[in-house]
Amino acid sequence: MIAPAKKNTDKPRCGLCGKAKNLIKTECCGNWICNDEHKYVLFSFATNSCSRNHRRYTLCGYHFNEGHKGDWKTCKKCRREFEPEMVAWYGTNEHNFEKMPDPPSYEPTHCSKCGTIINLGTDGYTRSGDERWCENCAAKEMEKRMRRARK
Ligand SMILES: [Zn+2]
Ligand SMILES: [Zn+2]
Ligand SMILES: [Zn+2]
Ligand SMILES: [Zn+2]
User: Fold this and answer.
1) 35 or 73: which carries more pLDDT confidence?
2) In terms of CB atoms within 10 Å, which of 8, 106, 107, 151 comes out highest?
């Protein structure tokens, strides 16, 4: 391994993807991040914006937006606000600069219909009352309802 050239090391880089162009400091934690939010296309659900991902999908961003006091990693309010699985995901996913050292433990969520494990943070799912359906079951259910409606 060759050590990186010295002049590169003091250049700020996005703490999430490592790009060195067009950076801003995050409001929530003061880290360098890509200033790429303009790239986001409304309703496209693209997840290619570092700053947007950090703001929307981390406790750090949430904690700041909600005006909580103190450090997000130890904030009780944040932990109360979401179910444990989401606290763990928001606190440790790849959009974080720093990961939550002690994410809460949780029971995996299963699809109420077929029993598949649903990753609440990353999988698509449908909520129906107390039930949660994986994408497959939700699609089947929709089809059933459509057919019924047509009769
Ligand atoms: Zn970036
Ligand atoms: Zn932050
Ligand atoms: Zn908080
Ligand atoms: Zn299912």
Assistant:
1) 73
2) 106
Please state the φ and ψ torsions of residue 135, each to the nearest 5 degrees: -60, -40
Residues measured by CB to lie within 5 Å of ligand 1, the ion: 14, 16-17, 19, 34, 50
CA of 3 to the centre of ligand 3 (A): 38
Please tell me the pTM assigned to this model: 0.80
Report CA(49)–ligand 2 centroid distance (Å): 14
Q: Looking at the predicted structure, is the pLDDT value of residue 145 above 60?
A: yes
pLDDT tens-digit map of 90-142: 999 999 999 999 999 999 999 999 999 999 999 999 999 999 999 999 999 99
93 close to 58: Cβ distance less than 8 angstroms: yes
- CA separation for the pair 102, 79 (Å, rounded): 11
Residue type, 146: M
Q: Say if strands 131-134 and 125-128 run parallel, antiparallel, or are unpaired.
A: antiparallel
Tell me the domain boundaries of the chain: 48-107, 109-150
Nearest alpha-carbon partner for 72 in 50, 100, 51: 100
